[in-house]
Amino acid sequence: MRDIYFVGTIPLADSSEVFNTVSKAVGPALRWLPDGETGVRQAWLPWLEPVFADHGQFEPTPQRYQRIHETKSHPVYRVKAGIDPAGARFHNLPYARIALASYREFARLKQAGVIPARVRFQVGFAGVNSVIRRFVVEEQRGVLAPIYEQALFDQILQIAAAVPSDQLAIQWDVASAVFQYIEAGEPCAHGRTRAEIIDTFSTWHARLGDAVPAGADLLIHLCYGDARHRHSIEPASIRWLVEFANQLSAKTRRSIQLIHMPVPRNRGDDAYFEALGELKLKPETTLALGLVHVTDGIEGTRARMAVAEKYRKDFAIATECGFGRRDPATVPRLLEIHAAAAGLH
Question: Angle, to 10 degrees, between the axis of helix 194-210 and the axis of helix 176-184?
Fold first, then answer.
């Protein structure tokens, strides 16, 4: 039986329904369980706009940001005139408050035996670069990124103070705001070459990973975007995901429990997977492959698995990204595919 990994969003009513539904469907294959990032969090980043819109130190600008394949744009913000951007602080982040409310339900259901004993409570954080690129004017990003990063670290510490370390997993989302630049390999603010860009982002995310307290699990979700179920840029192969993971693994001082990599629906070919043979993870790190796609079901999933197994025998089962943007009616079918692919039935 293979482990099953869920990236984050699951389009059900609330955390209780997510915990009950997922545990019932695939509980024996679970090691970590998110609360589904239900409600406004289903859209991943747009729900964070109030962090800037309702912040007394920020103001909207005429600039608009619209991610590739998204249908809506929103304002880009800047620190108000007369305020030194270096003095800005993010005291209004909502992660800890939401996570602790969900954890109370998680703990109750685990005590009742609904959630299996080995499963940890999973909390996901959008990467710093993704948030800052989306909501902050370019000329202030360099100053505000480390300030926002420290605010995220404070949120993690608040969660870790209330959730026992052996019950907690923290997931960092390393999304298209990273891999769009790596895949293109063109000069940008993060490096002149692809090698420099990978070095910049792997060093940055090693620092994010090392901020997760000892005893808690560290999960890394790599992603090429999922706006309207399309990537921001198409991966030529899994090669740059492997190179990033290798460098991240080497640079992170604490252990990494899981690294997740996406597999596009139409990539069941050797050319996509063969670089998995160059993957150099530490023994305690599980690889999860996001090769479950509802559109071609268990047959397509098993076909992709068969090719992946030529280059890497051991991996967990996942989708490419969270599936919160999907019709809730597809959730039972997705869970059935996960269960069959993992060998639960």
Answer: 160
Residue 60 burial (10 A CB sphere; 0-12, 13-18, 19+): middle
**Could you give the angle at the alpha carbon of 243 between the alpha carbons of 238 and 247, nearest 5°?**
150
Domain boundaries, the chain: 15-342
pLDDT digits (tens, 9 = 90+) for 132-165: 999 999 999 999 999 999 999 999 999 999 999 9
**What average pLDDT does the segment 81-110 reach?**
97
The domain 15-342 having CATH identifier 3.20.20.210: the answer here is yes
Write 184-191 long-range contacts (CB < 8 A, 24+). Answer: 184/233
The neighbour count for residue 94, using CB atoms within 10 Å, is 14
Average pLDDT, the chain: 94
pLDDT in tens, 221-235: 999 866 556 666 788
**Tell me, what amino acid is at 4?**
I
pTM: 0.95
